Amino acid sequence: MHPARRLVLCLALMAPVPAFAQALQNPGTATVTAHVVKAAPLAATPERIAALKLPPGFRIEAFATGLGAPRVIVVAPDGALYVSDRDAGTVTRIDPADGTKRRVVLEKADVHGLAIHDGRLFFVTVKQIFSAPLKPDGSLGPETALVSDLPDAGQHPNRTIRFGPDGWLYASLGSTCNECEERNPENATLVRMRPDGTGRETVASGLRNTIGFDWQPRTGTLYGWDDGVDWLGDDATPEEFNRIEPGKKYGWPYIFGDGIKNLYREVPKSSLEQWDRDSARPVLTWTAHASSMQFVFYDGAQFPADYKGDGFVTMHGSWNRKPPSGYEVLRVRFENGAPKSIEPFVSGFLTEGGPSGWQRFARPFGLAVAGDGSLYLGDDQNGVIYRISHPG
Predict the structure, then answer these.
(1) Cα(72)–Cα(116) distance, integer angstroms
(2) How far is the C-alpha of 25 from the C-alpha of 35, rounded, in Å?
(3) What angle do CA 208, 286, 5 make, to 5 degrees?
(4) CA-based angle 264:25:229, to the nearest 5?
(5) Is the four-CA dihedral 262, 266, 267, 271 of positive or negative sign?
(6) How many CB atoms lie under 10 A from the CB of residue 391?
């Protein structure tokens, strides 16, 4: 085994040193300084919402409040929102014309990822995938269990699902750990299956936790955001924006970001250099520890024309960085069908102040394009769904 690196922890708040950090201690090698900084939660007051920063011409307002901890958002053909709450174990339907009109349509422990396809709502827990028909009144008919043997989740139980242009159901199965050698080959992968759950196969591997993924409307190419590992310092490792292609692997747990080698691990039956050569690099990267969540391409008609085909992603916010990162929505700019740059789209949820020096009034998670071309943004801290519009 290669000599490990020495990790020096500087904690902004008291927190236990993880086993991974302890294992990396070895005097005489590189020193890594990591921080734990937890921004204090604040209420989402009208004054704070009004101070949010968006590009000129855009407006953000609270559409639905008092929702608990909303996670994944999907929009049905009739415009209604279906929103999961992992903590409560519910899926709630919200009327698109009135955010106060809502009802719980499903109670299922650990329900998280959602998808709508051919008149059915698909939903995933830690180990299982189900579907149920959408009734005309928006409620659900009898559910059908499609998959009951997803791999153990460990550190990343937040499964997400989405239907691809090929009509297959894709599922992101995160790693069980920060960095480790998985025993189950389906961990840290993206898999796909037929809508009835059969024919499951691995699409891509080496993806630590790709919660947000979608297909670019112009090219049909699959892209996803993968979260970098923790405890390697404030600026390592970056969040990765990957072009996900069948059969490829994306580095984890031996190669991080743009080529950071994990010298603590030896690759079984191969070498670190070979794994590096075989691993695809991200097409773009973003600030470490920002924690990417739901990702969608914009295919609506309300925003200015140059937003068409661009991507949006929510950044849930860091805990392992000083200063904190994330707590915002980013825009991924595309030109001629290819990703070119990343820039803030909604910011201002994070401000200075509080016991750690930082405070926040949202942890952005859910993101979906509405039927009218506006954008829904979910906050699982204060239970708010925002509507972002461009009145023109």
Answers:
(1) 12
(2) 16
(3) 60
(4) 50
(5) positive
(6) 8
| Residue 205 CB-half CA count within 13 A | 13
From CA 23, how far away is CA 18, in angstroms rounded?
A: 9
pLDDT tens, N- to C-terminus, the chain (392 residues): 333 333 333 333 333 334 333 433 343 456 788 999 999 999 999 999 999 999 999 999 999 999 999 999 999 999 999 999 999 999 999 999 999 999 999 999 999 999 999 999 999 999 999 999 999 999 999 999 999 999 999 999 999 999 999 999 999 999 999 999 999 999 999 999 999 999 999 999 999 999 999 999 999 999 999 999 999 999 999 999 999 999 999 999 999 999 999 988 999 999 999 999 999 999 999 999 999 999 999 999 999 999 999 999 999 999 999 999 999 999 999 999 999 999 999 999 999 999 999 999 999 999 999 999 999 999 999 999 999 999 97
Which residues share a beta bridge with 130? 123, 145
